[in-house]
Specification:
The complex is a heterodimer of chains A (58) and B (133). Chain A is an all-beta fold. Chain A has no helices and 5 strands. By secondary structure, chain B is mainly α. Helix content of chain B is 54%, strand content 11%. Classes of the chains: A mainly beta (58), B mainly alpha (133).
Chain lengths: 58, 133
């Protein structure tokens, strides 16, 4: 996973290229660009582990 | 999470499920709170109050946190973050994620609310992979 940082007007976007194993044997990989609002991030920028949580409030 | 202080970065992505009609405004409201610097406090309040997500509830939670009410209401009613929430939904779809919560730990998938020990295993594995054989 690589992380790039962009500065925008009043906001910073982090783009993560997430490699997701679609099959249990990891033969198929999807590469999707994720946009991230800096307000929705906790933890240091240089952390070795990034956990992305997709969730809802109900 | 304190055992991983400085070692783990957490990113929250919105995935309101269609079966929960009040979920989407709640996700947009949290981002409106984020625009005033209180995303995580509002996020915690939503989890504590679910499923009480009517508009007046969402505004009250913001006021309780001391947010600027007018600014929050303008953001919420104007749906300033509708496109941002929708972008998260579409990215989840592109990744094949259909249920919540789903975690990507350095790209590795963990679906569902797992006991903390499972997170320790996957985080430990991710760190070992970074360090190499």
């Amino acid at each position: 996973m690589s992380v790039r940082r962009f500065s925008g007007p009043g906001r910073v976007y982090y783009i993560l290229l997430a490699l997701l194993a679609l099959a249990p044997d990891a033969t198929a990989l999807a590469q999707v660009t994720l946009t991230v609002d800096h307000a929705m991030v906790r933890g240091p920028e240089g952390a070795p582990v990034t956990i992305v949580e997709f969730s809802d409030y109900q | 999470m304190t055992e991983y202080e400085g070692k783990v970065r957490m990113v929250f992505k919105d995935l309101p499920l269609p079966i929960h009609q009040l979920a989407r405004p709640a996700h947009e409201a949290a981002r409106c709170a984020g625009a005033q610097g209180r995303y995580w406090d509002y996020h915690a309040r939503l989890f504590a109050e679910q499923p009480r997500f009517d508009r007046e509830d969402l505004v009250r939670y913001a006021v309780d946190l001391g947010l600027d009410r007018d600014r929050f209401v303008t953001c919420l009613d104007g749906r300033h973050f509708a496109a941002a929430v929708q972008a998260d939904v579409e990215q989840a779809r592109a990744l094949g994620i259909t249920s919540t919560p789903t975690f990507l730990i350095n790209g590795r998938v963990l679906v569902g609310a797992h006991p903390v020990e499972n997170f320790r295993i996957v985080i430990g594995d991710a760190r070992r992979r970074l360090q190499g054989p």
